[in-house]
């Protein structure tokens, strides 16, 4: 059976600290429309329900803000991803904030419980926090920490309530009970804004971070080949592309947590293309476009669509 692409539109932004990422998917679609590109008419899609209205509710858990609703959203995402994979689709998830990546990883693992999953995180941030270590309490900084199942108690800075802990345990057990991806099966590209607890976890699991300057000095092909060698024992791969991995000064500040000196879009496209060539990719996610913060019109969404459009063509050419 020939595999087909399915687009999952997840307009949730309740895991972020700044509102507006829920509009990112529509902004990407507008970018396509303005280019006269029929991309979003070519693929089956599913609009996921969100809990964005809960943003008006008072925050109950300060070290994991809105965790009860983020848990619900991640369950929705997990079920949609699992269902898509079991029906032989290759899902591309367009998400608001990055907290939903935990749902995506959980859905992939639920669909392939016997397979070893590798995660390539193209991002300015490591997203390795837990409620015990997070300085902000924003859950979009925690999805990978939950996925690897390490609370990092050695770096505990927060006294976590029983209610928070109960929901956090639920987060770590979505779709497939326990760890979704081993710490050593994570590779970063572009991470350049971390806190000390995250640095310690990166050292603990020997997580390789291909920073922008290293990729440019050593070459994209060399770094991706090395990354794939590190993930050689993984049966399947998931790629998470957070647009804050891009150079905000060159492109725009249309994302919730912009960090200077990132990649240009052609570099991201080439990284993903070479990862696709491994034949192991089963799922891809793009997140954190926030048009409300874009000082250059719709530039970040236009750039995200450029990446989306080109890598989709690569998927169709190479593995579908």
Classified by CATH, the class is Alpha Beta
- As a percent range, the share of helical residues equals 25-40%
Strands, count:
8
CATH architecture: 3-Layer(aba) Sandwich
Largest sheet, if any? 8 strands, parallel
Q: What is the chain-wise order of helices and strands?
A: EHHEHEHEHHEHEHHEHEH
Widest sheet: strand ordering: 2-1-3-8-7-4-5-6
Radius of gyration: 18 Å
* CATH level-3 fold name: Arginase, Chain A
**Percentage beta strand:** 5-15%
Distance between the termini: 10 Å
Tally of separate helices: 11
Give the overall pLDDT as a whole number: 97
The secondary-structure class comes to alpha/beta
Assign an overall shape: globular
What name goes with the CATH superfamily?
Ureohydrolase domain
Low confidence ranges: none
Number of discrete domains: 1
Compose a concise summary of this entry.
This protein has 320 residues and is of the alpha/beta class. It has one domain (4-318): Ureohydrolase domain (Arginase, Chain A, 3-Layer(aba) Sandwich). The protein has 11 helices and 8 strands.
Structure report:
With 320 residues, this protein is of the alpha/beta class. The chain has a single domain, classed as Arginase, Chain A, CATH 3.40.800.10. It is built from eleven helices and eight strands. The protein has helices at residues 24-34, 39-42, 67-86, 101-111, 143-148, 162-172, 196-204, 212-218, 220-230, 265-276, 299-318; strands at 4-10, 44-47, 89-95, 117-122, 186-189, 208-210, 236-242, 281-287. An eight-stranded parallel sheet has the order 2-1-3-8-7-4-5-6, sandwiched between helices. Helix 1 (24-34) crosses helix 11, helix 3 packs parallel to helix 4 (101-111) and helix 3 runs parallel beside helix 6. The relative contact order is 0.18.
């Amino acid at each position: 059976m020939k595999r087909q692409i399915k687009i999952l539109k997840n307009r949730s932004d309740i895991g972020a600290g700044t509102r507006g990422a829920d509009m990112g998917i529509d902004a990407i679609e507008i970018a396509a429309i303005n280019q006269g590109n029929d991309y979003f008419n070519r693929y089956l899609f599913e609009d996921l329900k969100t809990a964005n209205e809960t943003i008006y509710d008072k925050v109950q858990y300060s070290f994991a803000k809105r965790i009860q609703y983020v848990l619900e959203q991640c369950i929705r995402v997990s079920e949609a991803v699992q269902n898509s994979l079991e029906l032989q689709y290759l899902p591309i998830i367009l998400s608001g904030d990055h907290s939903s990546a935990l749902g995506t990883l959980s859905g992939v693992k639920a669909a392939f419980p016997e397979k070893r999953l590798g995660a390539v995180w193209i991002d300015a941030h490591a997203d390795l926090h837990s409620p015990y270590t997070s300085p902000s309490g924003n859950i979009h900084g925690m999805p990978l920490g939950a996925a690897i199942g390490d609370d990092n108690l050695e770096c505990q800075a927060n006294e976590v309530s029983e209610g928070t802990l109960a929901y956090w345990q639920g987060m770590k057990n979505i779709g497939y009970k326990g760890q979704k991806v081993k710490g050593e099966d994570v590779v970063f590209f572009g991470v350049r804004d971390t806190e000390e607890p995250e640095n310690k976890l990166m050292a603990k699991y020997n997580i390789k971070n291909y920073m922008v300057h290293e990729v440019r000095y050593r070459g994209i092909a060399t770094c991706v080949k090395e990354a794939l060698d590190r993930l050689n024992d993984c049966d399947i791969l998931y790629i998470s592309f957070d647009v804050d991995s891009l150079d905000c000064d060159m492109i725009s500040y249309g994302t919730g947590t912009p960090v200077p000196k990132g990649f240009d879009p052609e570099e991201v496209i080439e990284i993903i293309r070479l990862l696709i060539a491994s034949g192991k990719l089963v799922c891809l996610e793009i997140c954190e476009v926030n048009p409300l913060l874009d000082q250059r019109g719709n530039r970040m969404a236009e750039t995200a669509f450029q990446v989306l459009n080109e890598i989709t063509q690569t998927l169709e050419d190479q593995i579908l």
